[in-house]
# Entry
Amino acid sequence: MLHIGEFSALTGLTVKALRHYDEQGLLAPARVDEASGRRFYAPRQIRDALTILALREADAPLPVIARVLDSPGNVAALEEQRERVLRERRRHDAAFDAVLQTLATPPGEIVLARREEPEQAFLGYPLATGPRAGAARDESTHDGDARDDDASDLFAHAGVDVSDSHWVATRVRDHETHEVTLCWPVSNAGDGDDLPGFITGVLPARTELFVTRGTDAAGLQDLGWYAEALTRLVEALAAEHRPHRDGFLMRYQVSPTGADSWNIDLSVIV
# Structure
């Protein structure tokens, strides 16, 4: 038997970590002295300890580690965790690339314009509500094509006619609360109101300040352009001195115009 200090030295897991994994039912000592409470581990537990150490280095959560330990041949659990880590890595890489591009490239000319928009019925999927809801808008813009593809199948099955690309609506309700909703334009108000998790609504006829830009795939992640365009829109809206009665509303829409080209439309309601 190895006491906890020896086991810690041999496996690289700290004494604190070993106690925690014992409490979580992940790696219990082979024996605990009833009088002193000292923990002892068997040599055969070294393999499990090193497996835990490696998976923690890979940021695997404890439930995944438990699945692997309970069934050493459970390759599926490892592959699922690997894919989650790779997705997170791709997200981080995209964020770094966006910032580097912002620092290296000026935003270019940004021209604000005004337009009158007719009433528009929509089908919406709430992404987030609360002080940190903005993160949901950022994530929704990175996988818009996939969302459109998934939604198209769902809408077709439900008999809902979606007339254009989706947009992301961010509405500020008060000083601390805002809502982010993924919206698809539909022909009639109430279309799709029986789809679980979705909401229906109507954007009234309105005046919008907007900025538009044609771009390739790289431009979709141009944080510099987005930041400058949003700044200009908010400044122009403040100059109007006409807050919208339902709160500040911003719309962000990306529409494909070709095989590798898109149009970005960023607007606020006056």
